[in-house]
Amino acid sequence: MGDESRVREEALGILGLFQVLPRLVVFDLDYALWPFYCDCRSKREMPSLYPHAKGILYALKDKGIDIAIASRSPTPDIAKTFLNKLEIQSMFVAQEIFSSWTHKTDHFQRIHRRTEVPYKSMLFFDDEDRNIEAVSQMGVTSILVNNGVNLGALRLGLTNFTRNSATPDRNK
C-alpha cells in the first residue's frame, strides 16, 4: 500500500497547487492506464495498472473530480473484466469502451451527453496523437502520455487546463 498512498498524497499535493480544476478527467485504457492492449490478453489474466495510475484516480476522487473512460477497443468485455479485477470499475461516472472509426470524438459526445460536463471543463489522457488532436479540437484539454498516466502527466495536464481555461472559448 505504501507506493499507492504515496502517489495519492503527491497527486493531491499537485491538485492543491491549481485554482481551476477540471470537472471531469477522462482516461484512455490501453497504454494510458495499463501497459498493454486488452484485445491481446485473456479475461483469465490478472491485469496491472501503470505504477501511478491508481493513486492518481483516488486523488481525483478525493478532490471530488469525476473520472471517465474513453477507450477504443474491439474487446470491451475484456476491458470491463479487467476494471472489475482491479476493483476500480465503480469509480467511473461514464465508461465508453467500444470500437469507433471517428477517433475518440464519438466517445466524448456520449460522455458529454451522459455527464452534461462541457468539453472545456474536461481533461483527457491518451497515448495516441490522432486522438489527442481530434479531442483537442472539441475544446477538451488533451495530454499525450508515452509511458502511461503518471504524476508528471497530471501536472502537465492541470497546467495546460489552467492555461486553456484562461483563454476565451472560441467554440461558442
The total count of helices amounts to 6
- Which of globular, elongated, flat, extended, rod-shaped describes the shape? globular
The CATH superfamily is known as: HAD superfamily/HAD-like
Task: Please count the beta strands (DSSP E, at least 2 residues each).
Answer: 5
Explain this structure to me?
This protein has six helices and five strands. The protein is of the alpha/beta class and 172 residues long. The chain has one domain (2-166): HAD superfamily/HAD-like (Rossmann fold), CATH 3.40.50. Strands 3-2-1-4-5 form a five-stranded parallel beta sheet, sandwiched between helices. Strand 2, helix 3 (76-85) and strand 3 form a beta-alpha-beta unit. The N and C termini lie far apart (45 Å).
Please describe the topology of this protein.
Blueprint: H1 2-16, E1 24-27, H2 53-62, E2 66-71, H3 76-85, E3 92-97, H4 105-115, E4 122-126, H5 129-136, E5 141-144, H6 151-166
Parallel strand pairs: 1-2, 1-4, 2-3, 4-5
Task: Summarize, please.
The protein is of the alpha/beta class. It has 6 helices and 5 strands.
Provide the descriptors you would attach to this structure in a database record.
alpha/beta, globular, 6 helices, Rossmann fold
